[in-house]
Amino acid sequence: MNILTFKTNEELNEAGAGIITGLIRTNPRAVLGLATGSTPIGIYEELVRVYRKGLISFKSVTTFNLDEYAGLPADHPESYRSFMERHLFSHIDLPAGQSHIPDGNAPDLEAECKRYDRLLEDAKQIDLQILGVGHNGHIGFNEPDHALRSGTHIVKLRETTREANARFFPTLDAVPTHALTMGVGTILKAKTILFIARGADKAEIVHEALTGPIRTELPASLLQTHPNVVVLLDAEAGRLFA
Ligand code: GLP
């Protein structure tokens, strides 16, 4: 596991975007796994800057997002589809049909999970999975539990997760109670995982996940079983590795 700590957020963003653009340059048909949350935003902004300079094209790239809230229409400002449009998709030349996000508003959510897994299977393998981490160690929306699921599934969000994400909604009640998420099996199948964390409030969970025992009650600890994880931390999140 390659753990890199950066003094500034700009350096972290440039490093993260550099890894992604390097991949797309060597493999224009790369399959990217994308994440939402505040953590990857700076990297997406950097990717857009590189794209605007004419240095990269996403025309042949395919993307799969980790997760989506259940019950929010796709055009709701806080759906992860809207998030991705706002921060990345609307600014680059990625063809609309090549970006995949589970449909959290599908009439049959179980069927939607199966459809998403079929799309992932058709894509064979995610080349690079961008991954953040929740304060409780969740990855995607795989919440701590006595057992974890491999494929895409419906999850009931922990109250702490809803509270953490309430900052984006008018009230706590407006935060969805459920979500659809890729399972840990799919995440761990990615060729490379780009695991990113920022801020002092992530320092302990990141350190425990990457150095402590591997357990399903701390889903990010499963990353220790993956042969190719690159970890990007800002100085605060990486404090305990110094
Ligand atoms: C969200 C997302 C995760 C994300 C995490 C951290 O709930 N489902 O994919 O990694 O929480 O979010 P943030 O980056 O805003 O701290």
Polypeptide structure, described:
The chain has 242 residues and is of the alpha/beta class. It has a single domain, classed as Rossmann fold (3-Layer(aba) Sandwich), CATH 3.40.50. The protein is 31% helix and 17% strand. It has 7 helices and 10 strands. It has helices at 9-26, 41-52, 80-87, 109-122, 159-165, 184-189, 203-211, and strands at 2-6, 31-34, 62-65, 67-69, 99-100, 128-131, 153-156, 178-181, 192-197, 229-234. Helix 1 (9-26) crosses helix 2. The mean pLDDT is 96. The protein binds 2-amino-2-deoxy-6-O-phosphono-alpha-D-glucopyranose. 2-amino-2-deoxy-6-O-phosphono-alpha-D-glucopyranose is lined by residues 35-39, 66-67, 132-134, 140-141, 161, 165.
Layout of helices and strands:
Blueprint: E1 2-6, H1 9-26, E2 31-34, H2 41-52, E3 62-65, E4 67-69, H3 80-87, E5 99-100, H4 109-122, E6 128-131, E7 153-156, H5 159-165, E8 178-181, H6 184-189, E9 192-197, H7 203-211, E10 229-234
Parallel strand pairs: 1-10, 2-3, 2-6, 3-5, 6-9, 9-10
Antiparallel strand pairs: 4-8, 7-8
Helix pairs in contact: 1-2
The structure holds 2-amino-2-deoxy-6-O-phosphono-alpha-D-glucopyranose (GLP).
Kindly report the average pLDDT value.
Answer: 96
C-alpha Rg (nearest Å): 17 Å
How many domains, in number, for the residues? 1
Structural class: alpha/beta
End-to-end separation: 15 Å
> Helicity range of the residues?
25-40%
CATH class: Alpha Beta
Q: In total, how many beta strands?
A: 10
Largest sheet: 7 strands, parallel
* Structure ligands: 2-amino-2-deoxy-6-O-phosphono-alpha-D-glucopyranose
> Which series of helices and strands comes N to C?
EHEHEEHEHEEHEHEHE
* CATH architecture level-2 label: 3-Layer(aba) Sandwich
| CATH fold node name | Rossmann fold
* Uncertain ranges: none
In the sheet with the most strands, the strands line up as 1-10-9-6-2-3-5
Strand content range = 15-25%
State the helix count.
Answer: 7
